[in-house]
Predict the structure.
Amino acid sequence: MLALVSVVGLLVAPNARSAPGLVVVPLPASGPALSYFKLAGAAGHAAQAGAIELRNPTNRRLRVRLDPVAGETISTLGSTYAPVGARARAGGAVGWLRLGGRLITLSPGEGLNVPVSVVVPGVARSGDYLAGVSAEALNQQSQSVKRKGVSIASVVRYAIGVEISIPGPRHPLIQFTGARSRREPAGLTFLLDARNPGNVILQGVQGEALITQGSRIVAHVPLGPGTFVTGTSIAYPILTPRERPREGTVYRIRAFLRYAGGIARLDTRVRFGRAEALIQQAYGGPKARASSGLSAWIIALLAVLGCTLLAGVLAWYLLRGRRARERSPLHVLEAALRASREREQPLSLILLAPQPGDATPHRLAARLRTRLRRADRLCVLDGGRLLIVAQDTDLETARALASDLRRHLARSSNGAGGVEVEVQRPDHGATAAELLQRLRVAGATRVPTPSG
């Protein structure tokens, strides 16, 4: 299962595994006998995961430390766990774990069961979450291994997975966010950046990557198969040990990842820059281009200083304009319609029209954002109306979401004011511009009515 992948220095505990002098056994509270905890939770409620049995079969006293740790994804796909004390990512489940003890002392031959429970916060959204419990015998004698003249010292630490499932709609999604290259001692490595922003722990993820330079194939490799944990990011490494590019060489990277629910694609270019060329030269590779000399640097510096202010102002305006376009209702609708057609998933629209004199659209939007799901998009339309674009959502689910939003607005305003909420399913062949025009026409002829 997804929680059973080991990494260097960390072993995922099966039904009974032992470090020198320590036996760790997970005891799930219900369901089949698994080597990890798998349970259903609900926002605002606590649930028992089970217990961790610790046994000391030695003739000396053992001190064992237990710590909650975050679930992560290995760069080459697969589940693992963050080091003890690592900063937890926002939205993770590591803070939900409750242990019956953190520092346990076991006498010779003694065994002890440590309870493990989960407290799900009321703001938790539906989805699959992965955390773990680290178990480490303290004061271990580090084991040294010599490899190619390098001595590596290590201790053994176990991690028992805790998979928590919160009921509600599921939105599987993987996105490529870019690519880059890095010159390392073993050769040129290309890194494919991807993330799982959905709410599903995706298993069986696999695909391919093709890297070319002009008409030459540099690498053609499979990706995965493996697991991609909810809310995590990876940099998938592709090593090309024989590649020794000149400074300025441009590579094209194409890749895809298939998962249950869709496919993520990447098509981008990466340039081998001067910093990488200098590193490659230090490793004995081709020499980087010679410096252009002090006078050229002085000229370049003066040019930069002379244009910095103008370039900064221009960049600010361009960035502001791009962000405004990305948040515009037209852009949001176009992206949602395209995704709905490509993935053959339902799409619903929720239109909210506040009464005249009620809160401003931006204040109303701030109230609504706390109740929206991760994939929902909120736009402000003409006339102070709000539009929620609910991806992968059928009409029945959208109506339930609309009712929840109506109740939330009534509570947050102490029953004052009113808002009209309407749920629509866009026509299959309609464009984003046509949908917006229909909404404008409908808004111009409709008078908002109070609703509790």
Q: What stands out?
A: The two ends are 46 Å apart (CA to CA). The chain has four domains: 10-166, 175-287, 291-325, 329-445.
